Every structure is written in C-alpha cells, then in structure tokens.
C-alpha cells in the first residue's frame, strides 16, 4: 500500500501503489509546496502587526508610508522597529534554510526569493508590503553567511560614501547580485533579489534622480523636527 494513503496512488491502480511511486510523487510536489509556503511566510505583515499591537496607525499611512522596520521605528517606537527587523530577517533565513534542506541550492534560492516577494507583495495585506531589504539580507544569511557579510560591508561603505540610506541599500543588494554571478554561488537569488530591490525602490530611485532624496543627516534632522 502507498505509505501516504493518498489519492495519487490509489487512483492509478495496484501497479503504482508502491513506496517508490509515492516517494516520486512527493519529490515532485514538495519543492513547489515549499516555495508556496515560503511566499506565505514572507507575506506575514510584521510591520502591520507591530503597529496594531501598539495601537498605532497602519505604517503604510504614516511616516514614509513603507511597511518596514525603519518606518515602524519612527512611527511606533525603536523596540517595535527592532522586532519587525528581526521578524523580516527571520523570514528570509528560515525560507532559505528550508529550501536548502528540501531541494538544495537552487530551491534554497527560490524559497528565499519567494519570501522576499511575499514581503513586498503580501497576500495577507492587500499586496502592499515593505521593500524586502531585511528579508533579502535574511535570505543571504540562510544561504551563505559569507555573502551576507560582504553585503553588509558594502552597505556600510555605501552609507559612508553616498550618505543616503535607501540608495546605499539598493547599491549593496545590486552589487551583491553581481558578486553571486562572479563567484557562481546562489546567482538565482542574487540576480532575483537585485531585480526585486530595483522594482520595490523605483520611486525612491526616481526621487534621487530628481535630486529629492535627503541625506541621512537631513532625514534625522527632519524626524527630530517632526
């Protein structure tokens, strides 16, 4: 008998009711199921949950309008912002590790990407989420801590040179995508993450081209005045 007791084996007759047939079916289904579950985990709106628990407005309607940890820290409080950051990081870490364990590097990349897509376009929040930077970093931590360290280092250097947090984040993720191609390691996630980052930050990049993106010092000054 099929060890899963499912309809797949039973409807195909005794010839297919073997353990190997059932395992083969599960091997085909499991990667897709893992990717779908990764998207659903990424879709958990941690920023909205934190704001609601604190009795504050939807972060998409106040501050920068972004459902991310930075805006939550500004509109709800630093502790809430740190909690959202940790939650969004964990989404990427968990999905990457599960994907690696189920199907190896390629599935790990795809599951991490699915988590980032969920963070940006969450099914549980009307497909209006954050910009995926923290979840992208979490994906790198789960897939390759060495790449995550390179990304953090390039982000820090970018902040010092560019002095704009959003632009530093975009530059670091795109540069890390190039690194994954050069070293031929997790390039699916690297290239996919870079594309998602550019799409999610397209309005910020447009503001930068118009000369309207404030520096970190100007942003802090404006926040103190607010």
Give a structural overview.
The protein is globular, with a radius of gyration of 20 Å. The chain has 226 residues and is an all-alpha fold. The N and C termini lie far apart (68 Å). The protein contains 12 helices and no strands. The protein has helices spanning 7-10, 19-42, 46-53, 69-75, 78-103, 105-120, 133-143, 145-162, 165-183, 187-200, 202-209, 216-225. Helix 2 runs parallel beside helix 6, helix 6 packs antiparallel against helix 7 (133-143) and helix 6 runs parallel beside helix 10 (187-200). 73% of the residues lie in helices and 0% in strands. It has one domain.
Strand element count = 0
Helix-strand pattern: HHHHHHHHHHHH
Structural class by secondary-structure content:
mainly alpha
Strand-residue fraction?
A: under 5%
Instruction: Give the overall pLDDT as a whole number.
Output: 89
The shape is globular
Q: Low-confidence parts, pLDDT < 50 over ≥5 residues?
A: none
Separate helix tally:
12
- Fraction of helical residues: over 70%
Q: Mind describing the biggest β-sheet?
A: none
The number of distinct structural domains comes to 1
Rg from C-alpha positions?
Answer: 20 Å
Measured between the Cα atoms of the first and last residue, the distance is: 68 Å
């Amino acid at each position: 008998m099929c060890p899963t007791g499912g309809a797949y084996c039973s409807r195909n007759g005794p010839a297919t009711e073997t353990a190997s047939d059932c395992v083969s079916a599960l091997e085909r289904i499991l990667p897709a199921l893992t990717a779908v579950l990764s998207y659903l985990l990424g879709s958990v709106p941690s920023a909205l949950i934190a704001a609601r628990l604190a009795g504050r407005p939807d972060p998409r309607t106040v501050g920068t309008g972004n459902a991310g940890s930075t805006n939550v820290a500004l509109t709800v409080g630093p502790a809430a912002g740190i909690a959202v950051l940790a939650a969004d990081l964990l989404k990427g870490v968990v999905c990457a590790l599960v994907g690696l364990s189920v199907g190896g590097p390629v599935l790990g990349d795809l599951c991490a990407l699915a988590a980032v897509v969920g963070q940006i376009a969450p099914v549980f929040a009307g497909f209006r989420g954050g910009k995926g930077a923290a979840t992208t970093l979490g994906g790198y931590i789960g897939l390759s801590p060495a790449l995550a360290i390179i990304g953090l280092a390039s982000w820090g250097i970018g902040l010092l040179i560019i002095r704009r947090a959003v632009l530093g984040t975009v530059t670091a993720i795109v540069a890390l995508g190039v690194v994954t191609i050069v070293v031929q390691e997790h390039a699916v996630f690297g290239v996919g993450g870079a594309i998602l980052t550019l799409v999610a930050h397209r309005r910020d990049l447009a503001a930068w081209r118009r000369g309207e993106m404030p520096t970190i010092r100007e942003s802090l000054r404006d926040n103190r005045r607010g």
